[in-house]
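Entry 14. Ran structure prediction on the chain below.
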Amino acid sequence: YEEGNDAAYDGSMMTVANADANKEYRKKLIWSKILKLGVGSYQCTECGLTKGTSGITALKNHVESKHLPGLEYPCEICGKILTNSNQYNQHLTKHRNEERNNLYQQ
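Output, structure tokens:
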């Protein structure tokens, strides 16, 4: 809320101005739920799921989608809501590919 601005805050942090701050916030929130157990071993502090170094992305996706339900990744193109950044990036790739295919078909 900004002083002098009577518009109500809708709870959304996904604005161009806030994108970088929002990304950092999400990153910190995700890592706050991951515990490093030792060399190459990480654990979800919520449910105990454990992964090795090669599974850290899967563990971050797990924390985002299972234990941080308030975090959403809305697609600006079609409005679909995704539950983690990996799903969001894969979804955007589909839109880019569709756009590319449409350009070639013209």
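The first helix runs from residue 19 to 31. Will compare against last week's run tomorrow.
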